[in-house]
């Protein structure tokens, strides 16, 4: 069970690939492993407490893992040791970044600035108009799925007393900036990385069939 941030860090290292919230595979998420007192709890005044949510940033920093919307459209932690193969495979199965595309603009902005909170990145990329947030987030999610962008921390606003509040803003950066070029381009073929990841999933999820595991990894049609 997860009772504190060090427990979450240990879980990330043990599982290697760990969704934050449930993805339909019983027990395979940090939320399902968290103790009852660490779950989301609304307060009568309208606020909330959710220790697990607030531990994300610390766990990312301490473990050096990757975090983003990687698994079945939901956020997940990928351990530092598995990231090279995860990145290698996902970049292979994902559409290439087209020259002059919005995805290229987003990557360029992050490369120029190192890291940016989502709100500032949207503005720099020209998505600061009404109803633009959802459209922009879709581009960021595609880049995360493809192994190009990760969340390196969370930034929270502070009230007049210096207390953090709200859901926080994701601090985004490129995978290369966080892990280095070598970790994003391992000396293995995509097929070899796929086999490593499949072997790992079979180990941590022994009751899950290969077809579902391929959905998790996003198998490329015809391969």
Description:
- The chain contains twelve helices and eight strands.
- With 223 residues, it is an alpha+beta fold.
- The strands form three sheets. It has a three-stranded antiparallel sheet with strand order 1-5-4. Strands 6-8-7 form a three-stranded antiparallel sheet. The protein has a two-stranded antiparallel sheet with strand order 2-3.
> What is the typical, i.e. mean, pLDDT?
92
N-C termini distance: 38 Å
SSE sequence, one letter per element: HEHEEHHEEHHEHHEEHHHH
Total helices: the number is: 12
SS-based class = alpha+beta
Spans where pLDDT lies below 50 across 5 or more residues: none
Q: What general form does the structure show? A: globular
Q: Could you state the oligomeric state of the chains shown?
A: single chain
Strand order of the largest sheet: 1-5-4
Please summarize the sheet with the most strands. Answer: 3 strands, antiparallel
Q: State the share of residues found in helices, binned by percent.
A: 40-55%
Radius of gyration over C-alpha positions, nearest whole angstrom: 18 Å
Q: Strand percentage, roughly?
A: 15-25%
Count the strands?
8
Q: What is this structure, in a nutshell?
A:
This protein is α+β, with helices and mostly antiparallel strands and 223 residues long.
């Amino acid at each position: 069970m997860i009772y504190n941030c060090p427990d979450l860090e240990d879980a990330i290292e043990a599982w290697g690939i760990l969704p934050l919230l449930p993805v339909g595979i019983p027990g395979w998420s940090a939320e399902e492993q968290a103790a009852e007192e660490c779950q989301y709890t609304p307060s009568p005044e309208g606020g909330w407490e959710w220790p697990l949510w607030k531990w994300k940033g610390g766990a990312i920093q301490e473990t050096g893992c990757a975090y983003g919307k990687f698994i079945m459209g939901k956020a997940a932690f990928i351990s530092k040791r598995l990231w090279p193969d995860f990145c290698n495979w996902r970049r292979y199965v994902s559409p290439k970044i087209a020259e002059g595309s919005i995805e290229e603009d987003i990557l360029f902005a992050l490369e120029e600035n190192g890291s940016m909170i989502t709100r500032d990145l949207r503005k720099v990329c020209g998505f600061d108009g009404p109803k633009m947030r959802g459209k922009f987030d879709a581009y960021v999610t595609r880049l995360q799925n493809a192994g190009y962008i990760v969340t390196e921390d969370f930034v929270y606003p502070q009230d007049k007393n210096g207390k953090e509040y709200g859901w926080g803003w994701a601090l985004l950066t490129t995978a290369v900036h966080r892990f280095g070029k070598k970790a994003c381009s391992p000396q293995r073929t995509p097929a070899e990385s796929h086999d490593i990841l499949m072997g790992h999933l079979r180990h941590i999820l022994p009751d899950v069939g290969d077809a579902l595991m391929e959905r998790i990894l996003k198998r490329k049609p015809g391969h």
